[in-house]
Write a structure and sequence with these properties.
This protein is mainly beta. It has 17 helices and 58 strands. Among the domains are: 153 residues, Phage tail protein beta-alpha-beta fold, CATH 3.55.50.30; 76 residues, Carboxypeptidase-like, regulatory domain (Immunoglobulin-like), CATH 2.60.40; 128 residues, Beta Complex (Ferric Hydroxamate Uptake Protein, Chain A, domain 1), CATH 2.170.130.10; 47 residues, no CATH class. InterPro entries: Beta-barrel_TonB_sf, CarboxyPept-like_regulatory, Plug_dom, Plug_dom_sf, TonB-dep_OMP_SusC/RagA, TonB-dep_OMP_SusC/RagA_CS, TonB-dep_rcpt-like.
Length: 1156
Amino acid sequence: MTRYALLGGIIQCLFVGLLAASDLKAQEKSIEDIYLSANLRNMKLEDAFVKIVEKTDLNFQYDRKIVSNKKLSQDFTNESLGKVLRSISQETGLSFRRVNETIHVTENPTKRVSVTELVVPSNQLVPIQLASRNTASGMQAPFRSVAVSEMLTNARRLQAITITGRVTGSDSKEGMPGVSVVEKGTANGTTTNTDGNYSLNVTNASSVLVFSFIGYATQEVEVGNRQTVEVVLQSEDRALDEVVVVGYGTQKRANVTGAVATVTIDEKIASRSLANVSSGLAGLVPGMAVTQSTGMAGRNNASLMIRGLGTVNGAGPLIVVDGMPDVDINRINIHDIESVSVLKDATSASVYGSRAANGVILITTKSGKGQERASINYTGSYAVQVPTRAIDFMDDYPRALTLHQRAADVGTLRSNYLFRDGTIDQWMALGMVDPLRYPNTDWWDIIMRNGTMQNHNLSASGGNDKSNFFISIGLMDEKGLQINNDFKRYNARFNFDYKLNKNMNVGVRFQGNWSKFTYFLADGFTEDNNTAGYDMQYAIAGIVPYDPVSGYYGGTMAYNEDPQAYNPYTNYINNLSYQNRQEANANLFWDWSPIKGLTARIDYALNYDNQFRWNANMPNRAYNFQQGAFGARAYVTDNAGVGNFTNTGYKTMLNGRLTYNTSFGKNHTLSALAVYSEEYWYDRYQSSSRNDRLHPSLHEIDAALTDIQGTGGSSSAEGLRSYIGRLNYTAFDRYLLEVNFRADGSSKFLDGSRFGFFPSAALGWRFTEESFISAFTDRFLSSGKLRVSYGSLGNNAGVGRYEQQETLAASNYFLGNSIQKGFVNRKMVNRDLSWETTSVFNLGLDLGFLNNRLTAEIDFYDRLTTGMNRPSEMSIHLTGAYTAPRRNIGNLRNRGVELNLTWRDQIGQVAYGVNLNGSKNVTTLEKWNEFLGKGWVFLNMPYRYVYAWEDMGIAQTWEDVYNATPQGASPGDILRKDVNGDGRIDDNDKIAHSKFQRERPTTFLALNANASWRGFDIVVLVQGATGRKDFWLNNHNNVNFGTQRYASTWGHWENPWSWENRDGAWPRLGGSNNTTESTFWLDDLSYIRVKNVQLGYNVPKTVLRKIGLASVRIFGSSENIATLTKFRGLDPEKDGNRSNVYPINKSYSVGINIGI
């Protein structure tokens, strides 16, 4: 090439570059600057293209095969053509590319929104290569045509742009400081200054800016050709616009007049290491006590109680899942739940009348949304569990010395000590060289282990204008802290809605689960409060768990040890129970709207539950490794049998309802509901057992001999018929009225007492909508509502299904000189026995401040349950075969207050929220039958309050004993105070602790805090309780143990008083007075617990786009990691049997959420 030719080429390139540069200033209108309005809802895509062409003079080029059978679902009003095309692209999965006057439509394999444009005047096209090819549709299309202006346009799009602007609020013309301004899909962002101004460098003209601030609607603005973007953020009252699930429908939060709390189950709650839903609700709902009593796999669900103990006959709330009552909340996959509504007062719960006396928990599961493109989500986590606190059992050598110390303290002669002189020292010395014959077993280490839990959940959802769906499967695999305590559950769900036509819909909600549960004792270390000799208190250290060489399980070997002492290991290996359970819940519905405002709906639901449990214990005996022979103890006898136990039940529900919504005048709305419902329960129990299996490995009933066998079985049924109504009226968007009624008829009661009627009414006043208060609303008060309600609810849980049926029992009669077989009436029937009735008054106040960044909910309630079913006074006068009937004679009152404060705000790019909630409840027993026992029940006292002697400390000398009221004490014993001064110690000296309850706290507090910043998030939940006292004395710290089988704890070695240890924290070993219920053993069970801490990170969208994922969140979570308490027992949260030492778990987990 000559230098002249080279020079000519350079000049030509510069000339073309100048032409292209001038073209940038003379471009035709962008699709972002072309605005149109078009009604495209339910229009075919081809017809929509025609309408757009008429309004814009642009043409579309497409293959009919890819646009046929596609309809649109949106209307557009004064929207840019670019936004219209993006909406169509999102809905149809098509790609749009504008080149001059033509918009090319192609299929988009990625199914992502794709809209691009290229505007080049024809006189500035520089052809590089012209060719043609046949497209898939048969059209002739340019194969390659490049303009210099296109190259420069692309270069401009890739060049960083500085965008400046100002952000103001719709409720004020002043600039808004602290508004987050972020380039969408990136971590690039800034915040506005004190005047509301900002400056941000963005990637290119296609960048989208996201403006967000707490209390205002988030806005997204595409940069386009602008360098200045000014935004007005619209005030957003999300709290008032929120839709709340209530009985048989929904209501706007602003119009709710009852006491309703709502929990949204987001990814942060679902990501916690939880075995069940009930445990996840702790600390989230004021007024609802969530108490966990054990960490045992398969039984670690929490008990739920709303607003205190409402009745002594079944105090748990009614659980309703997708409209189906009586579903086991702990069998539901928490990942399937959309929201949980807790109905606490009579107005909100009265449509469930007969079983809503203790509150209602409404669970709504997830469903696909209309026009939602199909998405797939996976969540997986793995957790390690350890005890929050554990019993520390003593080694064998100090245990033996402790037994001798007890003998000395109670005055036992040396010759009558359990062990001969030298035996203890010999055992310790030989144990170091021969642990098989002289063992020192740490049973806690043998029986317990670190638990684990795996959770895996996969779901898919989607929808269009005709249907939507949600499908999920889940697996939870938990291995408990105790060996061979395992629980595995599979869940599946299918939710589907289909629109038959414009005013008729059908749908189905199906949930199934299957589980396998393995355990030795039903409560871990106890069985229904009965140790049956298997409790860990009898697990002495001088027993070998198992010798793998001989295959034998050890028994006692030391001289004078009880040969019936306990070897836990053999039971937790050979005496296991296995339980399989299958459950299915299906709900079908059909609704029809024949005219505007009127909807008819029919629901049919079925709940099926089948449980099968079997055990086939392996024969084994205690072996004495010192003597080389089997001992007297048979852990499982040689004729061990097999037992099968089956519980099967189902429930059906059919209801029809009519809903009517209308408006009249300019400011009046009316909503009415009428429901007819029928429910039916059926349950059957069967058992069978045989002894003498033909071989230990055989587990079937037919594999055992028929010499010793047993069978059993029973069935029962129950029906409920209900008539329900509700009326809601709103005037001027601020005066609210709600009236409810429910009439229930139960098969448990006889005619004349069968039906109960439970009405309620509520008033609400949104006073911030009044003009006279505008001076406050303009400044700081955003919303305010006063609520008041009163109504009644019912309960029949304390009545048996056949309690009102007269029954006969076989008996013998003397007729003449002979005995004749016959029948006798077994019980008397009270034909007037009927419903318990709970009347509830509720006064509530809802407030919002600073554009609802700060919200407060305050409720006061007074709940009185009358007519509690209790044994009749007649029962003390009856003997023989007769059983006295029960009567409606008990009254129980609960008063309380609840507070819920929430603050949410944003500082720069840090969004955060804090919630503080608490409740105080006082229970008073106002009426009972004649069976009143101090220490448990007494009128005008809390139900099951603390009633105890007041201690005066430990007697250090005989002088202390002589100076005290005579009570059979010795030095080292607890001295009790003669409160009434009558010179003797008896029950009249006990003191009632009326401000404390024995079984549950009176006050609950919780602090929830969360924050997020650039993809990182943190959640902290701290929960606490107070107002409960109980005795921490139990079978494991008993100072008066009287058997050589007793397995002492280290507390028995370190703490007891003795002549050598006058500062002992415990009284002396032995002495009957030392185990009485006195304030010496009374502990305050108040506690503060760090319930959950969770850290998460959301992978940026820019990274995810490259790998085809919609979202990825990596998280770590911990449960029950720290507890502050003065309680000396195992765990202050535990309720129930104090001798059950299965601890509550603390856990540490990691996991991932993936969205596609």
